[in-house]
Amino acid sequence: MPSRSPWTCVLWDVDGTIVDASDGILRRLTVTLEHFGKRPPTRAELVHWIGPPMYESFQVNVGMSPAESSEAVAFYRVLGKADGYTTGAKLFDGIDVLIRDVAAAGIPQATASSKPEVQVVALMDHFDLSTSLTAIAGATPDEKTLSAKSDIVAEALRRLAAAGADTSRPVLVGDRHHDVEGGAANDVPVIFVRWGFSWPHEADGAQAAVDDVAQLRTLLLFEDSDG
User: Fold this and answer.
1) Mean pLDDT for the stretch of residues 204-218
2) Are 126 and 87 in contact (CB under 8 A)?
């Protein structure tokens, strides 16, 4: 039976929503922060790091100045490039199948990630999801020119529209309050996924919150009884 969606397009956050890249992020953060004389985070403290742009996180979490943060981001990115952007990254169970099924239903999709776009492209290629996406939007390499979630959501919508997609009823799927706020700034409702790195209150303001991919599927697709 054919599937349909209540949405005309779907935007996806990446870290904590599609991909669990926490192992590599923790290792690179540890090396970076020790290099700059700062205490690295524990795994439990990764919730403070995964989601926001790293340029912002180095300032908020360890008190770096903007100039120091720029230097730390550059150092961190060199490590990431040396590692390979996909090293240690895993998909959350079933999310790839859902993304492919949404594509098969004819619903345009795009990423809207605060990760540098070159990394998002590498991850989507690695997990064979690029062909299911109409657009891949992420941050600029310096994570300053384009990094705010509201701006990235706007850019993802712009690219979808440029590709001929109907953006009249978009939805954003994400796992942090940055996603909720970035969606709200663009009048895009958000479905909050609880399997990422977040605190429970971060779902406040989302249209819905789900605990697993099966629940998410029911909000993105339904069977077309007329099909």
Assistant:
1) 98
2) no
